[in-house]
């Protein structure tokens, strides 16, 4: 069994060095890592092919295999995201503001790394490079524990990143990979309080709940997306159709995809048949409340469980509501605080939705699929936080830092 305490010791030692590394050195290494990812594309694709073979043998669904699958284009995109991180401002060492108090002390608030970050994640190999690059740029050592589905791909990616560090005279322990995918080792990582400053789970609801239940390390909850699109009575219906098809069908296996369509009763009779055709043509299966079934030809009756389900598949729940108040109440009762959207031409309705919906990202007249660190200009993301303490929404470099107060005196003592 892997020695997690040794990984923790290695990470702590590396974090001390990383915290003092210059921005120029970090950026140079990130660019070299990005180049190495592209230069080793053949080896990465071979590793990924092995993971995909195992996924097929284990009867993993095609939508979930899409999360796992790497292509030349996706590998290039991973490298580009690392290059974007290198171009971002380095938050470490920045003093947010300084002031002098009545005792004559000059007080400042300075950005510093969190220290050692643990990440438990599933399926998607791009999380490996995104997390490694963001942690490295923000001066944090990282211990990565990916899922068994992408084990070979993730291990190969970390080997490549570590080799760049070694080739340039740096410790490989800045980026480490847990080579044991057992639940026992995952549980140990959740309790590695002597070494981890924070643990970030990134994956489905079962993973998030398991980490919340078992971790003694401080955690940042991310990922689960039971997201809604609400079509208001004042919506432009052609726009609404485009948005809901994109939010549901463009990539249903990701956490920013829509899972429920709420539609105002005034537009439901003539709009539901239109949206049904567009969604069914995109491969989507509908599960609707009793009122909606009157206007739909292919839908089955939704159960109470459907309103709380993150399908991550070509399935969409549909419900008619009589008002925006009812829509907001439904969303706040059933959502996972990730991403919510309203389609409307009413300014009053849009502001009511923005102000009253409880979620990390709230949209007016746009798809929920935009909730993404790269899209928001963060270069990449280490996850999308659905909680309210420390960080909320897509987490970039700033969200991987904390602050400490620095105080300059001239011999003052407190009377």
From TrEMBL:
One of its GO terms (molecular function) is glutamate-5-semialdehyde dehydrogenase activity. Pathway: Amino-acid biosynthesis; L-proline biosynthesis; L-glutamate 5-semialdehyde from L-glutamate: step 2/2. Keywords: Amino-acid biosynthesis, Cytoplasm, NADP, Oxidoreductase, Proline biosynthesis. InterPro entries: Ald_DH/histidinol_DH, Ald_DH_C, Ald_DH_N, Aldehyde_DH_dom, G-glutamylP_reductase_CS, Glu-5-SA_DH, GPR_dom. It is an enzyme of class 1 (oxidoreductase). Residues 8-277, 315-404 form the Aldehyde dehydrogenase domain. Its main location: cytoplasm. It is found in: Cytoplasm. GO terms for cellular component: cytoplasm. It catalyses: L-glutamate 5-semialdehyde + phosphate + NADP(+) = L-glutamyl 5-phosphate + NADPH + H(+). One of its GO terms (biological process) is L-proline biosynthetic process. It comes from the Bacteria. Gene3D superfamilies: Aldehyde Dehydrogenase, Chain A, domain 1 (3.40.605.10), Aldehyde Dehydrogenase, Chain A, domain 2 (3.40.309.10). Its EC number is 1.2.1.41. PANTHER family: DELTA-1-PYRROLINE-5-CARBOXYLATE SYNTHASE, GLUTAMATE SEMIALDEHYDE DEHYDROGENASE. Catalyzes the NADPH-dependent reduction of L-glutamate 5-phosphate into L-glutamate 5-semialdehyde and phosphate. The product spontaneously undergoes cyclization to form 1-pyrroline-5-carboxylate. Belongs to the gamma-glutamyl phosphate reductase family. This is Gamma-glutamyl phosphate reductase. It comes from Enterococcus thailandicus. The gene is proA.
């Amino acid at each position: 069994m892997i020695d997690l305490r040794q990984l923790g010791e290695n990470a702590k030692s590396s974090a001390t060095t990383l915290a003092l590394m210059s921005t120029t050195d970090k950026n140079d290494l990130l660019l070299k890592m990005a180049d190495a990812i592209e230069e080793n594309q053949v080896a990465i694709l071979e590793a990924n092919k092995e993971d995909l073979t195992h996924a097929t043998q284990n009867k993993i669904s095609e939508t979930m295999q899409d999360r796992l699958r790497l292509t030349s284009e996706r590998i290039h995109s991973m490298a580009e995201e690392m290059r974007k991180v290198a171009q971002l401002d380095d938050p470490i060492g920045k003093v947010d503001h300084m002031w002098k108090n009545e005792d004559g002390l000059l007080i400042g608030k300075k950005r510093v790394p969190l220290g050692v970050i643990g990440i438990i994640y599933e399926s998607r190999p791009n999380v490996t490079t995104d997390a490694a690059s963001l942690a490295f740029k923000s001066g944090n050592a990282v211990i990565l524990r990916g899922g068994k589905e992408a084990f070979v791909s993730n291990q190969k990616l970390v080997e490549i990143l570590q080799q760049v560090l070694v080739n340039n005279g740096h410790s490989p322990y800045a980026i480490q990979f847990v080579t044991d995918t057992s639940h026992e080792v995952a549980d140990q990582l959740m309790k590695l309080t002597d070494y981890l400053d924070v643990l970030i789970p990134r994956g489905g609801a079962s993973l998030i709940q398991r980490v919340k239940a078992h971790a003694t390390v401080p955690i940042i909850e991310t990922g689960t997306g039971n997201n809604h699109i609400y079509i208001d009575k004042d919506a432009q219906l052609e726009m609404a159709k485009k948005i809901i098809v994109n939010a549901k069908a463009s990539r249903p296996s990701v956490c920013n995809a829509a899972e429920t369509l709420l539609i105002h009763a005034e537009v439901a009779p003539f709009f539901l048949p239109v949206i049904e055709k567009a969604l069914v043509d995109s491969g989507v299966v509908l599960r609707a409340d009793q009122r909606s079934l009157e206007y739909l030809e292919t839908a089955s009756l939704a159960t109470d469980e459907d309103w709380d389900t993150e399908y991550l598949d070509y399935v969409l729940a549909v419900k008619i509501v009589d008002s925006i108040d009812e829509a907001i109440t439904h969303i706040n009762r059933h959502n996972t605080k990730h991403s919510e959207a309203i389609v409307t031409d009413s300014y009053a309705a849009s502001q009511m939705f923005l102000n009253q919906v409880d979620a990390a990202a709230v949209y007016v007249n746009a798809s929920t699929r935009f909730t993404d660190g790269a899209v928001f200009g963060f270069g990449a993301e280490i996850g999308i936080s659905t909680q309210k303490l420390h960080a909320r929404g897509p987490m970039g470099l700033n969200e991987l830092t904390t602050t400490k107060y620095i105080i300059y005196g001239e011999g003052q003592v407190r009377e």
